[in-house]
Amino acid sequence: MDLPTFILQWKERPLSQWLSAGNRYLPQAASALLVIGIAYQAAKLTWTVIPSAPVSDAPPTLPAPAARGTTAESPSGLDLRPVLDAHLFGEAAQTGPAPVVETLVDAPDTTLNLTLTGVVSSEDSSDGWAIIDAGRGDANTYYVGDTIENTGGTVLHAVYDDRVLLNRAGRLETLRLPKELSGRVAAARPRQAAQISQANRASLQGVLTRNASQLSEVIRVAPYLEQGQMVGFRLNPAQNPELFQSLGLQPNDVVTDINGMALSDPSAGLQVFESLGEATQASVTVLRNGTPEVLVIDTTQLQQLSEGRQ
Questions:
Q1: CATH 1.10.10.60 is the classification of domain 200-309
Q2: Radius of gyration of the chain measured on its C-alpha atoms
Q3: What is the pTM of this model?
Q4: Residue 151 in contact with residue 114, Cβ under 8 Å?
Q5: Is 33 helix (H, G, I), strand (E, B) or coil?
Q6: CA-CA 20 to 30 A from 59: which of 68, 212, 218, 290?
Q7: What is the pLDDT of residues 243-268, one digit of tens each?
Q8: Candidate CATH numbers 3.30.470.30, 2.30.30.830, 2.60.40.4070, 2.102.10.10; the one for domain 115-177
């Protein structure tokens, strides 16, 4: 039977036959459509969970090596950290920053009318102080950072064994000790170094050298003149009057000699410092209200002075 004849026959059949045929074939058709729909959804779900890998000509990507300091595992799950930490091929040396070595600045000589008559220096050039004559015959004591009188604001920048550096409007200049004083300092340096290296006990000279900055915060020193002639050095308290008095000193004391050596010359302070050598005590003569008095200062007092400052 051809299709047109089949359709014509079903068209002419009564409604009861249509209902009977629908009851017979509709469940199968609905089930078929349901199966097709479920299959389509299942296929769609499968492609969503397992996407198809695109075809590429690029070489496969290798896994990145494990970084130092993190847990390293092999493909089999083994922990390789103990092997890495063993440094089988050695370990690179860790280089720290090079030690800072203070170098002497080569600054031009100053043209200011100044005379350097004495210095007290230490390993740190910023801790010293100097006696400078500003051309009026009245030398004064200046510490690093002080402004020198009659120089238009020039500041003492650094103190070395035989010279000082001046900051003159942002430009560094050198003020040197006179040659005769510089020669004595140079000759004294080897002996001083040997004495300090041999001594297991603290010497007065060593304490003064190591604690120059501490002393400068306790004692202010200035040349003292009478009728234009130098008599000695006037002492006054600096930042710590209590420590100043603990040394047995009083404001305006004038030191006239140390260990019998007169201080009537500004340069004599360098000779006195050399003469201290390994002495643990020093006899100091002071003029107090016009009357000479003798004080004995020892290393213990200076060490206590330094400890009290800290």
A1: no
A2: 48
A3: 0.39
A4: yes
A5: helix
A6: 68
A7: 777 777 889 888 888 878 787 765 55
A8: 2.30.30.830
